[in-house]
Specification:
The structure is a homodimer.
Chain A: H1 9-19, H2 22-34, H3 40-44, H4 49-62, E1 65-70, E2 73-78, H5 80-98
Antiparallel strand pairs in A: 1-2
The structure holds a DNA duplex.
DNA sequence: ATCGTATATCGTCGATTAACGATAAGAGAT
DNA sequence: ATCTCTTATCGTTAATCGACGATATACGAT
């Protein structure tokens, strides 16, 4: 029997990839605090506007956030459902991995 | 006040980055099952040996796994401590993010 | 209709990633 | 000492990432 899952691992990897940059983590933290922000993020992180826009796009594509256009600006928010999905995919695995023994019995190991 | 954390976000991002590939997730799942494997992973995933070796290096560098050389082979295992670190860094954030409202009050939003 | 603001997109650059085959290095066994 | 097996590393390739400035687009206000 092969390792379980593998189906949703693609999505898990995609969301992890979007998380794999300090600037994007910072953006998520910011959105968690005051929800709905656009170019204010540019001030908070000291990055060019185009760079921030790209990071937002990555987060949006991966599903972490949603963007609602509000006149000339776009209002970004965390997508709680996707956060929930991510937790549901990741946490059972992490729990299992944390208790994995350092070296199991049926193995070709020292 | 800026967003909290940012200190360990670098490490969080690093570990997330290592997680951001289906093959590496598969490797972690495998190691969680039977611990201590080396080239058996090459069979499980259908990838070249050098590719698997690289993925193992990425996981090791990020701290997810440890490698103990055992004669001619190397025995890899999950590092429960790092898994724990990762959980400790990530889960509080995820909990917070999941309950973040879609659009908060003090915001320039619709 | 035009101006100003806000944001997305384009094009570019250097750096990194992912994959592979080929080669080197280490440890046992003959 | 040599052969074999296992794994790490090297070199290459195409693709992607991260950052930026410049430009285009969209909207609201004048």
């Amino acid at each position: 029997m092969p390792a379980p899952s593998t189906v949703s691992d693609a999505r898990l990897a995609t969301m992890a990839k979007a998380l794999a940059h300090p600037a994007r983590i910072a953006i998520l933290r910011t959105l968690a605090r005051r929800s709905c922000i656009c170019g204010e993020i540019v001030e908070e992180l000291q990055l060019a506007q185009s760079t921030v826009s790209q990071h937002l796009k990555v987060l949006k594509t991966a599903g972490w956030i949603t963007g609602v256009i509000d006149g000339p600006r776009t209002c970004y928010s965390l997508d709680p459902e996707s956060v929930s999905d991510f937790r549901f995919m990741l946490e059972p695995a992490l729990e299992q991995w944390e208790v994995a023994c350092t070296c199991s019995a049926d193995s070709s190991c020292p």
